[in-house]
Design a protein that fits this description.
alpha/beta, Spore Coat Polysaccharide Biosynthesis Protein SpsA, Chain A, 2 domains, 47% helix, elongated
């Protein structure tokens, strides 16, 4: 199986000059070429669900693609995920396996999978079967209709608790108000991307990765497919509320400097209020003489201003910490070993001590 050459990205997208002229408005141009499809699956402690996942996804890939591969990324699992993947690879040679040196996180594991995928189109999917493999078929139909990105949108969040639904809704509203690159509400990483989109995303090598934001930032013609998310087929999610909170912070600080600007405005407002109060005290003293200031009012002012300063320092620290990680220039992930996957040409050289394994 061979991937689309980056120099032929215009042909893959169906946006060569003749096709664009035929389209007239520059909208999606239908594709009719044979499809090689890559499925990218990040995994962490998912041994219990692997058999059901491959049984569900392989018939769909046989039906929708002329050729296909599955790129499974083991994100430092502590259970039998990696041995189970290698057992499936002996049965199915189109399964490629990338084992990371430790648990780097889902965003980094997804990046490793995108770096290794060679298909004309790439589908990112979770292994827990909450994202239905059958939805890949309408994804491919939209791709053939000319869309470069086709993402799944949850039709409802009835399976989530009230608090999680409320916080998710609030996050999407806040993110889209603070950033110039809105992301569709109720979407995850489950999506199909054309080769040109994958190459564009692969060029974004920032260390603090918010993949939904990166997928939106690169643009291209995008379409949504609604679906109902199923319960997990096995195991339990590793995403607790603390991780979700940090994930939300990463997303906002990666795509917006509005929080920094807000503290500039707040500082200016507090300074103006201080000048106004100082003028009031001067006028009152001249008109009515001196009085003894109250201890309570002094404490309120000191505590308020101290709190504002500490919060503003915290916001600056969030951005400074991310600059610190970017400045060190460490690789996004480190590969311990790979099976059936050649090192990608754009991979960071220090991230590849494991080399290729043909077994």
């Amino acid at each position: 199986m061979t991937g689309t050459d980056p120099t032929a990205a215009a042909a893959v997208m169906g946006t060569d000059p003749a096709a664009t002229a035929a389209a007239g408005d520059g909208g999606p141009v239908p594709r009719r070429q044979p499809l090689t499809l890559s499925l990218v699956v990040p995994m962490f402690n998912e041994a219990a669900v692997l058999d059901r996942f491959f049984a569900a996804v392989e018939p769909v890939l046989d039906r929708v693609a002329d050729d296909w591969e599955i790129v499974a990324v083991d994100d430092g699992s502590r259970d039998a995920t990696l041995p189970a993947l290698l057992a499936h690879r002996r049965r199915q040679p189109r399964l490629k396996v990338v084992a990371l040196a430790r648990n780097f996180g889902k965003e980094q594991a997804l990046t490793a999978g995108l770096d290794a995928a060679l298909g004309d189109a790439v589908v990112a999917i979770d292994v827990d079967l909450q994202d239905p493999p059958a939805l890949i078929e309408p994804f491919v139909e939209k791709w053939r209709a000319g869309y470069d990105v086709v993402y799944g949108v949850r039709a409802d969040r009835a399976s989530d608790g009230v608090f999680k639904r409320w916080t998710a809704h609030g996050f999407y509203r806040l993110f889209n108000r603070l950033t110039s690159v809105p992301i569709p509400a109720d979407t995850g990483d489950f999506r199909l991307m054309d080769r040109a989109v994958v190459d564009a995303v692969r060029g974004l090598r920032e260390r603090n990765r918010f993949m939904k934001g990166l997928f939106a930032w690169v643009g291209f013609h995008q379409a949504a497919v609604p679906y109902v998310r199923a319960p997990r087929a096995a195991g339990s999610s590793s995403w607790n509320y603390w991780r979700l909170w940090n994930f939300a912070l990463d997303g906002i600080t990666s795509f917006s400097t509005v929080p920094l600007r807000l503290w500039s405005y707040l500082g200016a407002a507090v300074a103006l209020a201080g000048f106004a109060y100082a003028a009031f005290l001067i006028v009152r003293t001249i008109a009515f003489g001196r009085d003894v200031p109250g201890f309570a009012s002094i404490m309120v002012a000191v505590l308020f201003l101290g709190g504002v300063q500490l919060i503003s320092l915290g916001v600056i620290g969030e951005y400074l910490g991310r600059l610190y990680h970017e400045a060190k220039g460490r690789p996004i992930y480190v590969v311990r070993q790979r099976w059936g996957v050649a090192p990608p040409p754009t991979a960071d050289p220090p991230a590849d001590p494991g080399g290729d394994r043909a077994g």
